[in-house]
Design goal:
about 25% strand; single chain; about 60 residues; alpha+beta
Length: about 60
């Protein structure tokens, strides 16, 4: 199985939570060069919110970054 983690060649957002009791983990790489990682449910939630507001498709909609 190939890695689902984003990279500079394959930008995106990846979130995993292997079990209900395990902390969520997330990583993001944007085509603009921004990168971020997070561990813990609240931190991953913030990472996803930031990605949605400032990266990914937000670039096409006039978002920042």
């Amino acid at each position: 199985m190939t890695s689902l983690a984003p990279s500079s060649n394959r930008p995106g957002l990846h979130v995993s939570k292997p079990s209900p009791d395990a902390p969520a983990r997330g990583s993001a790489v944007c085509h603009c060069g921004a990168t971020a990682t997070a561990t813990g449910d609240a931190q991953v939630g913030a990472l996803v919110a930031g990605w949605n507001a400032n990266h990914g498709s937000a670039h096409n909609a006039g978002g920042t970054a």
